[in-house]
Amino acid sequence: MEQAQDFLDESLALDRLLSGRPDSDFELVTQFKAWTINDVLRHLHYWNWMAWLQLNDEALLVAQMSEIARAGGMRPVERAHVDGAGGLALLTLWKAQAQATAQAFGTADPKARLKWAGPDMSARSSITARLMETWAHGQEVYDRLGETRVEADRIRNIVVLGINTFGWTFRNRKLDVPAAMPFVHLTAPSGDVWTYGDESTAERIAGRADEFCQVVTQTRNIGDTQLQVQGQTAEIWMAYAQCFAGKPETPPEAGARTKHSS
């Protein structure tokens, strides 16, 4: 699956950002729920492993879901999974698991139905979700270290997730789903143009694809982007956009998620 290679490439980009840094950098607090960079890596590592279990050990996957429930949440389980490792030792563990997960999904049937915490999902959807999480949580790491990410067209996978979850954003908040999605016109990192929806509608969103991804993954407030938003439906969607599963999450306030300047 192409998505497996895209996931690996995004993971390796994050690895290059962090490789060679002192362990103290991994304890820097990010703008995401006050997680440290170590917290981010533990989270990504654990759920990359859980995705690997989808293909290799469904019984252990189910047992781990029960363990999270017993522990009262995922954070203690994520930390215990790596025996509290942090810094470059944790980075090594995370990278190895990302490579193993990418390899497993690279040869999987994209349409295979896999067990997960919610409804079963396809193998393609599972590895795409891992790419999305790696990119989204990577954003707080880039921000905290004051670095600007060099984007690639593999973020189209995240754009598609954002488009496909248009209705979910409304249903998840118990709002009526609009009859039609706004027209979306995005410029890819390569300069290509990606469009979605009916161009004849007055409701539209236009701008850079990476900023659209930032909004639907809730790593930026719409007000902190240069996206052009026209129409009430488009405005509501961009105010609440959520391309990931779970209860409704509140996007960051304007100015709350930015690149660190020092």
Question: What do you see in this structure?
Answer:
The protein is α+β, with helices and mostly antiparallel strands and 262 residues long. The chain is built from ten helices and six strands, in the order αααααββαααβββαβα. A hairpin with a 6-residue loop joins strand 1 and strand 2. The chain is globular and about 55 Å long. The model has no long low-confidence stretch (mean pLDDT 96).
Helix-strand blueprint:
Layout: H1 2-18, H2 37-56, H3 58-71, H4 74-81, H5 87-106, E1 113-114, E2 121-122, H6 123-144, H7 156-164, H8 166-171, E3 183-187, E4 193-196, E5 204-208, H9 209-216, E6 228-230, H10 232-240
Parallel strand pairs: 3-5
Antiparallel strand pairs: 1-2, 3-4, 5-6
Helix pairs in contact: 1-5, 1-6, 2-3, 2-4, 2-5, 2-6, 7-9
Explain briefly what this protein structure is.
With 262 residues, the protein is an alpha+beta fold. It is built from ten helices and six strands. Helix 2 (37-56) packs antiparallel against helix 3 (58-71) and helix 7 packs across helix 9.
Key phrases:
262 residues, two-stranded antiparallel ribbon, 6 strands, 51% helix, globular
Gyration radius, rounded = 18 Å
The overall pLDDT, averaged over residues, is: 96
The coarse overall form would be: globular
Largest sheet at a glance? 4 strands, mixed
Give the % helix. 40-55%
Q: What sequence of helices (H) and strands (E) makes up the elements?
A: HHHHHEEHHHEEEHEH
Helix tally equals 10
